[in-house]
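@channel anyone free to eyeball this complex?
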Amino acid sequence: MDPLFLSRFFIMILTLSIIGIMGISLYGIFHRPSLIKKIIALTIFSDAANTFAIIIGYRLTKGYETPIPPVVTKIPPSTGYIELFKETSVDPLPQALVLTAIVINLAIIAFLVALTLQIYRVSRTVDVRTLAVMRAREEEIA
Amino acid sequence: MSLRHLIVIIATVVLIVTLSYAITMRALGPVPLFKVRRVSEFYLTNAFNPFNKTISAMTPEVVTSIIWDYRGLDTLFETAVFYLAIIATAMLYRGVIVRRKTQVGLSPIVKTATKIVVPSIIVIAIAVALHGHLTPGGGFQGGSIAAVTFALILVTFSLYTLNKIGACKEKLLALRSLGLLSLIATSIIVFVMGMLLGIRAFILQNQAKLVSIIGLPYKMYNFLISGSCFFFNVSEALAVSMAFGLLFIFISIFEEDVEEALKRREEVE
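replying in thread with the prediction:
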């Protein structure tokens, strides 16, 4: 079969499945009552988005060889090597964007977990429905 | 099944179908292509290019050159977001005092294995952070790997053990601030050098540019250090590892200590 068609077909299937995962995780964020489940769904969503960005950065090379990672391995490089590197390396920009996003996601998830822990300590539940009822009751008292 | 539930499910399905249809109809264009984007082509050509030193970052790892040189300001603000999350967590746990407790933990087998594994994890983290400008990796990854040791010690030994070997939260906060300060110092060092010499220079500058003739050396005693990238990676690794250690300590503080602090806070209010 045509390698161009095959590679584009597989990338398409990957992209579509990532969109499916994104939809499911959005459902989890909006409709699961437990805060912990919401956080888990959020991590799945961010991972899906990161994978999506990485897939966009994939490229094909002439002769359909495997593209190389964006690292110059020959030092000092010749002009020909730089040309070849440009033709065979994958897109570095999505990787650079995803690299920082992963670490920041981790920090924000840890913050959300700490917040959920405090909520549990104060009100003994992480169910948003019960929390809403408790808040309404508190407002009634006030 | 309530109406609300039904609406959420239908909305999710509609979202998935619409996006999938758009992708199938080539909304992204044909992916993958034979060429990378124009801006990425620029980065790939100029990340390590001895023939065009004025616009090159002189960093063999293209991703690192983008993160700390071409888009350095971007990364600095992303780091700010990261530390905002850490500071918010620290604020949640204000007033909590960790008291001395008897040492608890997992079985001696797990403890011995942890004692063997922890030094090797630290060595790998340092290697990843120091070679950030040469191989895939860098400050963020090295710091995250080093932070795993805090989690390991917390789980297999206890918070008390971590405090006893000197990793209390005040110290970690101070070391994190040291990492952040060296990050700032690295970003303005060329600017300060230019001010002292009376030459025009810029903040976050790495190599010498066309309009500014000074810059950091990319080679030092035959070692390739890629100017500011090396120092950025090292200080970022220090800051990230200490910040994550802080987070892990906050999450695993003893329940009674936190509740005591909460009660005290309520009394004050």
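from a first look: The two ends of chain A are 72 Å apart (CA to CA).
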